[in-house]
Design goal:
The complex is a heterodimer.
Chain A lengths: L2 H43 L6 H55 L4 H51 L4 H34 L3
Chain B lengths: L2 E8 L2 E7 L13 E6 L2 E5 L7 H11 L5 E5 L5 H4 L2 H7 L4 E5 L16 E4 L4 E5 L2 E7 L9 E5 L4 E3 L20 H15 L3 H13 L4 E3 L6 E2 L1 H11 L12
Parallel strand pairs in B: 4-5, 5-6, 6-7, 11-12
Antiparallel strand pairs in B: 1-2, 2-3, 3-4, 8-9, 9-10, 10-11, 12-13
Chain lengths: ~200, ~250
């Protein structure tokens, strides 16, 4: 294994790790959004019919948050699998590198079979990883749609909040703006995830 | 796969253990890896053999960003302790590894270069991790001739390498000792055979008895907590060990 190969190795590994960290961050955001939406529903219910529209928007946000959680669990399990696969790949590559170096130094004919075996094993593992990355890209695409929907829902909640009494309006606007900021953050994180995941298929 | 469990958290420092792998092949001894997060830095104690690297890496990723791992602490040179070093360095070549000076030219056979190892002197030394003071404590000849443990005075946790180790039956996944008398039977044979020096044992027991220890965390088997720590030290102090006792029992 040459230096460039080793560098790629580290880069591959780091990408999986950063993906895992992003997925963990998204899960935390999903939990926070759910809490905010619940809080908004409680507040709007106190105002009766006047805030029926806001209540509806907040309920949809809550349902959205549940859907986000489900999708994140799907992504999380794929990313966990990728972490396991990537660490197995590093181990296999490390061992193959040592074996190949020994075979090349020996200069013996019987080494050809060992080299072929190592390369076939690494290639099979690469294909498995690639298939896994494809599934991750699909999951990220679904998340991206959800992220965009969140932005629409939060804009709708901001509009509905204007129907509130002035003393409650400020409070609801704060909740909805915070939700909007978190939705945007989700979109940014998901885009980052998509970029990382797609680069593995390039 | 292994699971990561938080053992102690407070004052900007967190101890976790990565333990109990139900998928571990039976020909590999089960190991515990401990993770200490302090400030922006993380230390991994006895990271394990290269066969279990994927299991340790993925369990650890659940509770911490593996890119924060800056240091490894190797209690001694055994393969189940540190043969994964080369793989950790493949992930992050800047990781540095504390180990007894005695093994600093042996351990690099598992990976690393002239800068990877930080030699620990025989008398031990203070180690700072992200502003957290830790202490490497000598435990030579228990069982390795260059053997050190790691003490955290803030959390009152002693990582004790092979001391306190027990060979648990496959159906026992308990993380903590719950019935000392039952548990110690699982530690008995291990200590009688592996611990070859009574003098070294007496010195270690005297040293350990003077430390306030809430948790004694071995590399194999269950963790001792509270009064079980003192019970273990007393039990070990009275155990017949030594080279003459080696052999069939």
């Amino acid at each position: 294994m040459g230096t460039a190969d080793s560098a790629n190795n580290v880069e591959d590994f780091e990408q999986v790790v950063s993906l895992n960290e992003a997925a963990k961050r998204l899960l935390r955001r999903s939990f926070e959004i759910n809490l905010h939406a619940l809080n908004a529903i409680v507040q709007s219910k106190q105002s009766g019919d006047r805030l029926r529209g806001f209540n509806e928007a907040a309920s949809q946000i809550r349902a959205w948050s549940g859907e986000l959680h489900t999708q994140l669990e799907r992504l999380g399990s794929l990313v966990r699998e990728a972490v396991v696969q990537a660490s197995r790949f590093v181990k296999r590559k490390h061992t193959a590198g040592l074996l190949l170096s020994a075979v090349r130094r020996s200069g013996k004919q019987h080494g050809t079979a060992v080299v072929a075996g190592c390369e076939a094993s690494l290639s099979a593992h690469r294909s498995e990883l690639r298939a896994l990355w494809r599934r991750i890209v699909d999951a990220v695409d679904d998340l991206n749609q959800l992220g965009l929907m969140a932005c629409v829902l939060s804009r709708s909640a901001i509009i509905e909040a204007t129907a509130a009494e002035p003393e409650q309006r400020a409070q609801l606007e704060e909740v909805t703006k915070d939700f909007y900021a978190k939705s945007e953050e989700v979109v940014v994180i998901v885009r980052g995830l998509g970029k990382t995941a797609r680069s593995k298929l390039a | 796969m292994k699971k990561a469990v938080v053992l102690s958290e407070g004052s900007g420092c967190r101890w976790s253990v990565i333990a109990r792998d139900p998928e571990r092949p039976s020909h590999l001894i089960d190991t515990n890896e401990y993770l200490i997060n302090a400030g922006e830095m993380t230390m991994l104690t006895d990271p394990g053999g290269q066969e279990i690297f994927p299991a340790v890496f993925s369990a650890l990723s659940e509770i911490c960003d593996p890119r924060t791992i800056t240091h490894i602490f190797a209690s001694h040179q055994d393969p189940d302790v540190i043969s994964s070093l080369g793989l950790w360095l493949a992930f992050n070549p800047a990781i540095r590894c504390y180990a007894s000076w005695l093994w600093c030219t042996f351990i690099p056979h598992f990976g690393g270069d002239a800068h990877t190892l930080i030699p620990l002197p025989d008398e031990g030394m203070p180690i700072e991790l992200g502003g957290r003071p830790l202490q490497a404590i000598p435990a030579h000849y228990l069982h390795s001739s260059g053997n050190l443990h790691l003490y955290d005075p803030g959390a009152r946790i002693l990582f004790s390498g092979d001391i306190g180790a027990a060979l648990m039956p496959p159906d026992d996944a308990s993380l903590f000792v719950t019935d000392f008398d039952r548990h110690i039977k699982l530690a008995d044979g291990f200590h009688r055979r592996w611990m070859g020096s009574r003098e070294a044992r007496d010195a270690w027991c005297e040293r350990a008895a003077q430390l306030p220890i809430e948790m004694l965390c071995p590399q194999h088997g269950a963790i001792y907590r509270g009064p079980d720590v003192g019970r273990f030290i007393n039990w070990f102090a009275g155990l017949p060990i030594g080279v003459l006792r080696a052999g069939p029992r």
